[in-house]
Design goal:
The strands form three sheets. The protein has a seven-stranded mixed β-sheet. Strands 1-6-5-4 form a four-stranded antiparallel β-sheet, sandwiched between helices. Strands 2-3 form a two-stranded antiparallel sheet. It is of the alpha/beta class and about 550 residues long. β2 and β3 form a beta hairpin. The relative contact order is 0.07. Bound molecules: adenosine-5'-triphosphate and magnesium ion. Adenosine-5'-triphosphate binds next to α9 and α18. Pfam families: AAA, AAA_assoc, AAA_lid_At3g28540. This is AAA+ ATPase domain-containing protein. It catalyses: ATP + H2O = ADP + phosphate + H(+). Keywords: ATP-binding, Magnesium, Membrane, Nucleotide-binding, Transmembrane, Transmembrane helix.
Length: about 550
């Protein structure tokens, strides 16, 4: 038989349960009402979620910016971030604290929720809540710490909360929907970026990583002067690379291609990189090798690059002591007192500029421990395959100085020489800069360009109107004058060189003659001495003979 107390407790629990059911129904309706009518503020929504959670437990999914041991931001995080940018549009989706980044449209900003902000979303009748938060950097010295950003920087997360009863809908359909939508937003908002591994402070980057600005270089192949056939070949090569994902997979090669651009300063190597990036619509990662401390840092930088990008190392010969062998060579060249300055007139300016560049970097270089093998690994080691769809470009003024291992095909697949301005390039520049296709001065320019070498940079500078009174006539006249001056300078230098050579020759001849003369005199003296000796010997012999005759007698 049940005791009174147990009966009472049974009645009690029945009442409590009924009450709870009523309260729950009221609360739930209230919560739904609150959400539907969106009457309450962010705080009331948070409260309603917490109340709902006590009665119908909610589940959470956390998306970390760097998950597990990964070295790159997770795609899911970036997609969620982009999706939430959309969710915070308009009035900010009820979010009070927003982060703003520049938009494609210069008048607008892309808004996203700030840390510790919460935004509610709704998917086919299911209510979900997103929370953004950051955790302090982990300084545990573990492998993650060694590898980079993931542990050394603040760790950012999104947490998605939803009711247990919506579990299948959220996990099976809502999250894939978020990723798809996020990707679409990313494509829509995409601004190409120019990354650098140099921090704003100018020293070692704080976390040895990339910082970026929006890539806005206006140069395209349409405004790049070079041999049209060569230009077409490069553009076709780039197009073929972009569409060759399956080919690279089929032949088992990493989806990357190396370009070596070489030529004197001012022939358009950097300009070509900008044109390539604009043609392919890729980001650019400009690596300043002298700011990379070790091979490990170089590898990490590489891993943090994204696909659809051009990775650039400018002036590779100045940035790196490629081998011990090269170092010795350089030293020997210095000892011998020779070098680029011996290269004659046409390379004079180029050599001086390149030497200045090299000198600038000498100080920094001594602090960098990046080696040739580090760079080779970076280009085609195991890690180079991660990410895919990347172009690596090296530029140099002195291709002959580079270690053959660095530029062999497979590493630098395409070698492109950027050269002095020919008449075709000049005509192209005249059209671009002055909108002139034919002019009476073209013949003069053509004749002069056959005799002197001028870089496209110098030609372009002369063709740029400097003031309101300047037009095609004045610019072309300025170019002809500059070419004539260059020609005179070249002729003066040639005459000087010829005079020096003639002087040297005359000196050598005089020396030879002097030597001959000295040799001849010595021979004569020797001859005379010889003759004298013979005479003396003969007279002695005669004396002896006479003496013998006397004795016989
Ligand atoms: N082939 C070209 N077509 C059009 N403009 C050019 C060309 N080459 C050079 N220029 C112009 O000259 C300037 C300098 O060129 P750029 O910086 O590309 O030379 P570079 O070869 O990279 O020189 P360096 O070896 O010193 O880095 C650019 O501003 C560009 O506008
Ligand atoms: Mg350059």
């Amino acid at each position: 038989m049940e005791s009174a107390s147990s009966l009472w407790s049974g009645v009690n629990s029945g009442i409590v349960l009924s009450l709870l059911a009523v309260v729950w129904t009221m609360l739930w309706q209230g919560i739904q009402g609150l959400q539907l009518q969106n009457l309450f503020s962010r705080h009331s929504r948070r409260l309603s979620r917490r109340l709902a959670a006590t009665l119908d437990p909610y589940l959470t999914v956390t998306i970390a910016e760097y998950d597990g041991g990964r070295m790159r931001p997770s795609d899911a995080y970036k997609e969620a971030q982009a999706y939430l940018q959309r969710a915070t549009r308009g009035a900010g989706g009820g979010v009070r604290h927003l982060k703003a980044e520049p938009d494609r449209d210069p008048d607008r900003l892309v808004l996203s929720m700030d840390d510790n902000e919460e935004v509610a979303d709704e998917f086919r009748g299911a209510a979900v809540w997103w929370l953004a938060y950051t955790s302090a950097p982990r300084d545990d010295g573990g492998p993650g710490y060694f590898w980079g950003r993931a542990s050394r920087a603040e760790r950012r997360f999104y947490r998605l909360a939803f009711l247990e009863r919506d579990r299948d809908l959220v996990l099976g359909e809502y999250l894939p929907h978020v990723r798809r939508q996020g990707r679409a937003v990313m494509v829509m908002n995409r601004q190409r970026k120019l990354f650098t591994n140099i921090s704003g402070g100018g020293g070692w980057d704080s976390d040895g990583s990339w910082s970026h600005v929006v890539f806005e270089h206006p140069k395209t192949f349409a405004t790049l002067a070079m041999d049209p056939a060569k230009k077409k070949e490069i553009m076709d090569d780039l197009d073929a690379f972009r569409g060759a994902k399956d080919y690279y997979a089929r032949v088992g090669k990493a989806w990357k291609r190396g370009y070596l651009l070489y030529g004197p300063p001012g022939t358009g190597k950097s300009t070509m990189i900008a044109a390539m990036a604009n043609h392919l619509d890729y980001d650019v990662y400009d690596i300043e090798l002298t700011s990379v401390r070790t091979n490990t840092d170089l590898r990490r930088l590489f891993i943090e690059t994204t696909s659809k990008s051009i990775i650039v190392i400018e002036d590779i010969d100045c940035s790196l002591d490629l081998t011990g062998k090269r170092k010795k060579k350089k030293k020997k060249a210095e000892e011998d007192g020779d070098g680029a300055s011996k290269d004659g007139e046409k390379k004079d300016g180029a050599a001086a500029a390149a030497a200045a560049k090299a000198e600038e970097k000498v100080e920094e270089k001594s602090t960098s421990k990046v080696t040739l093998s580090g760079v080779l690994n970076f280009i085609d080691g195991l890690w180079s395959a991660c990410g895919g769809e990347r172009i690596i470009v090296f530029t140099t003024n002195h291709v002959e100085k580079l270690d053959p291992a660095l530029i062999r095909r497979g590493r630098m697949d395409k070698h492109i020489e950027m050269s002095y301005c020919c008449f075709e390039s000049f005509r192209f520049l005249a059209k671009v800069y002055l909108d002139v296709e034919a002019h009476e001065m073209f013949d003069d320019v053509a004749a002069l360009l056959r005799e002197v070498e001028m870089t496209p940079a110098d030609v372009a500078e002369n063709l740029t109107p400097k003031g309101p009174g300047e037009d095609a006539d004045t610019c072309l006249a300025a170019l002809v004058e500059a070419l004539q001056k260059a020609k005179e300078k070249a002729m003066a230098k040639k005459a000087k060189e010829e005079a020096a050579a003639a002087k040297k020759k005359a000196k050598r001849k005089a020396k030879e003659e002097a030597a001959k003369e000295t040799g001849g005199k010595a021979a004569e003296e020797a001859k005379e001495a010889g003759e004298k000796a013979v005479e003396e010997a003969a007279s002695e012999a005669d004396d002896n003979e006479e003496e013998d005759d006397d004795d016989d007698e």
